[in-house]
Sequence to fold (283 residues):
Amino acid sequence: MIMDIANFTPVEATLGGALIGLAAALFMLMNGRIAGVSGIMGGILRPVEGNMLWRVAFIFGLLVSPALYSQFASLPAIQIDSSNVLLIVAGLLVGIGSRYGSGCTSGHGICGISRLSFRSILATLLFVLAGMATVFFMKNLVGGA
Amino acid sequence: MNLLTSALAGLIFGLGLIVSGMSNPAKVHGFLDITGNWDPSLAFVMLGGIAVASIGFFFARRRTQSWLGLPLQMPTARDIDRRLVIGSVVFGIGWGLAGICPGPALVVAGTGIVEGGIFVLAMLAGMVVFELIEQRKQ
Fold:
C-alpha cells in the first residue's frame, strides 16, 4: 500500500464530514428522521400521503448545494472516469442494493454508526470491502476502472 | 416548517459533501483503491460526520418527539438478515464501479454534469426494480 499524500486532504475531509454530521443531527432533531439519501429517495417511489414533500425538499437541498457553494468559492474538480454504460450498471446496482440493504453511506455509514447500530456497522464494513474488492478487480483483472 | 428544515438539512449535507471532496468520484475511488495510491480522506469524512452526528443522536435518543413536534423515527431493526448482507454487498459493488453513492450522485447531477444525471436516472431505475420485486412478493 502506498499513501497518496498529494491528494490526501484530512482537514477538508474532517470539516466536510462534520457538516454532513451536522445535517444528520439537525434532521433527526428537527424532522425526526434518519438522513439516509437512498431511503429518502426510495420512499418517493412508495407514495404515502403526507410523507412525500419533505423527501422532495431534502433532495432539492442536495441538488442546489453546488449552486450555493459556487457563490462563495469555485467548485472543486469533479472527475468521472467511467463510461456511460458503466455508470448505468453502477447506478442500477447502487439503487437496488441500497434499498435492499436498507441504507447507503449516509444512512448506515454516518447515521447508523453514530447510533452504534450493529446492523449499520456491519453494512458499512460490507459495502466498503465490496467497493474495495470491485476497484481491485476492475484495475487488475479487467484493466482500468 | 418541516419542509424548510428538510431542505436546509439536504443543503448542509450537500455542502459537506463538496467541502469534504466526496462529490468527486475520482477521490472516492482513491479511497477504495487500497493497492494503488491510497487516499484515506474518506475515512476522515466518516470520522468527522460520526463525531458530530453522535452528539445529535445522543440528545435525540431521550426524546419521543422532534423539536418541531414530529414523531422521532429511530430505526428499530436489530437482526442481521440476508437482505442487509446481500443488499450492502450489491451496493458496494455499484459504489466501487463508478465511485458514486446516492448523496454525491445528486450533488454531481446538481452541477449539471451529464454523467451525474445518467447515474441518478439509473439509480432511480434500480430503486423502481426493487419496488417491483417487493410488490411481487406480497
